[in-house]
């Protein structure tokens, strides 16, 4: 009997109703779809205080104006739905945490400092160094430069002549620059050994120079002795009359110097407007000079990049067809790989790449 009862009890477990759990799950899903459970909602959103007695009767227009439209209700923020945090907010929170931790650490160190008598020499006193993003200055040079019309495959006669003249002028400038450059210092200087006769003459000249120097020194000492004797003979006893004359002369010179100073001051005071005009002119010249420098700097940046490495930027020669090479059709054009070179030179000119030297291929 006992065994059969036990079997009946275990079978009866299958008949336990799960209605409560199903109802709870349905309610939870319904609340999640509607925006949240009413139990967790604030009382302000559920209940409204009736103040109709205090408020005067409004017009229909005012009621219609206050009516919330469909798109406005959609755009309103739902208090039950939590916003998805973005990665930027997470980064800002992390930064705030690091700053707070650094400040707390500095406060703890200040509290422990006078008691322990120890301090950290590398401590920045709560300062947090956060690296900012480096913003690159935009280059004045455009990414794609349009060549003159004379460089086309089928140009007009006048434009082709102008571009040819510019190309010839550039080449001639390079040739003249090479010709006018100073000659480099030679690594070795050719020379001949000194013979015995030349060595003898050089030694004799050196001895003559030493004798001349000794004679000059003796003459100088004799002149100094004669000057000292003449000075002693000229020195005489000064009388009181001469002293008074000297004093009177000094006083007169002082008075004249003071009068001259006063006169110069009056002249300077009278010439104040002229001085102001000169200062204004100098200021204008300085401004004009500054403007000229700025314009020259902009032109320099437009023509070439700033110096990045040990080599300067060398612009590519202008791609102009000769009169013999102009055919008037794209099919008969001579094949040349200038696109990659043009892009590479453009990157160098804009200061993105460091200018490199020409490399010749080893065969």
UniProtKB/TrEMBL annotation:
Residue ranges that the Swiss-Prot or TrEMBL entry lists as coiled coil: none
Keywords: Nucleus, Ribosome biogenesis
Protein's GO biological process: ribosomal large subunit assembly; rRNA processing
Residue ranges, compositional bias (Basic and acidic residues): 105-124
Major localization class: nucleus
Single GO cellular component term: nucleoplasm
Entry protein name: Ribosome biogenesis protein NOP53
Species in which this protein is naturally found: Spinacia oleracea
Lineage of the species this protein comes from: Eukaryota, Viridiplantae, Streptophyta, Embryophyta, Tracheophyta
Gene that specifies this protein: LOC110795171
